[in-house]
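Good morning N.,

You mentioned wanting to compare the apo and holo forms, so I went ahead and generated the holo version with 4'-deoxy-4'-aminopyridoxal-5'-phosphate. This is what I fed in:
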Amino acid sequence: TQTDSLVERDRQNIWHHISPYSEAKPPTIFTEAKGAWMTDHQGNRVLDGMSGLWCVNVGYGREELAKAAYDQMVQMPYTPMTQSHQPAIELAAKLNEYLEDDYMIFYSNSGSDANEVAFKIARQYHQQNGEASRFKFISRYRAYHGSSMGALSATGQALRKYKYEPLVPGFLHVAPPDSYRRPAGMSVEEFNIQKAQEFEEKIIWEQKETIAGIIMEPIITGGGVIIPHPVYMERVQEICKKYGVLLIIDEVICGFGRTGKMFGHMNYNIKPDIISMAKGLTSAYLPLSVTAVRKEIFETFKKSEENSHFRHVNTFGGNPAACALALKNLEILERENLVARSAELGERLEQDLAELKDHPYVGDIRIKGFLMGIEMVEDKDTKEPATNERVGKIIAECREKGLIIGKNGDTVAGYNNILTLSPPLSCTDEDVDFIVSTIKEVLRNNK
Ligand code: PMP
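and this is what came out, ligand included:
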């Protein structure tokens, strides 16, 4: 049949991302999607509780996004960003509306790209300030910042890295503020201050003159939804200021409403020096990413012609159709109040799933906006992570009932025990009912 032949041709020709090759478990071939629901080539429907890879924030099937891209392609499909075009100009201005006009916008194609640009700008900035010795970056274990060599070096998940070493020198890591596993007797606030201080210790040990920047997500997403206490982010920013280190905030997942604010860092009292964005910028309908850089930093690039030359070009970066689509995507976010809706849905999940705290294998439930992690453990006292078998079974059963959820964790320690949920912000109330009832039912069956 045609179905078999599609699977067969996939097997013959496509090298899939990340998944190990499995004869027994071929990939699902999706053919249609609308709202939060996807249909595979055999007609099965599933609710995409992960918005693809945490990116389809406005949901599937938005014809006006397709039309915005179409209209732009027909009118003028391409201008390199060595020049300019109207969608790029309008989008940059729009992003700056959210960012209080304090940033310059540099376009690329992916989250990894956006972080690479951040690293290069940070290094050149310090050089131009006469501090060429500042080349190192500090990030956190468990964080994910991308797949290219620099972004992978910043990533703090050894399993993703060890086969590709040596990576880029000068990337250092500290522990994330995993409050769930804080020492007994310590408050969340005390623990978060202690974790923030690890940056200062690292800076001192490494010589402050060598540190270019700190890169972090406002909330660690892929490493298992680790939500810092506000004091953590504030302290990190203070440390950056004290030592002349740039604070780079990776908003690739947290941006565009995911955490109940337009940007994840807006949950905290901080102002990043550099911000990377991708995924939700276009809700993944087309590739586009942005590195937003504080205007004060850009000023140093204007001191002389030689200085102003940031030697980085990217053929597709700032593609006109992608920029036009992104503008329309932001219009949808605003028109449908999806950022506020995300905050509201988060509160709803919090209430509806509170009873799961009594489940024998649920260690912790962490929710911010429409981003959720449920940390599964074998034993609530020892907090021993749930086995991959237990977590895998729950995910498979959700999938059988028509709900895609994800899993993440501390891959350094080799466990992936955090169930993750990140559905489109446009989910209907019935969609949310379905998500909640499915998760509850599956967990009930797995006591
Ligand atoms: N940063 C974060 C926080 C991410 O989650 C990702 C992708 N999962 C990236 C960067 C890299 O983005 P991309 O896959 O578009 O290169």
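The chain has two domains: 2-58+337-444, 64-335.

Happy to go through it together on a call whenever suits you.

Best,
F.
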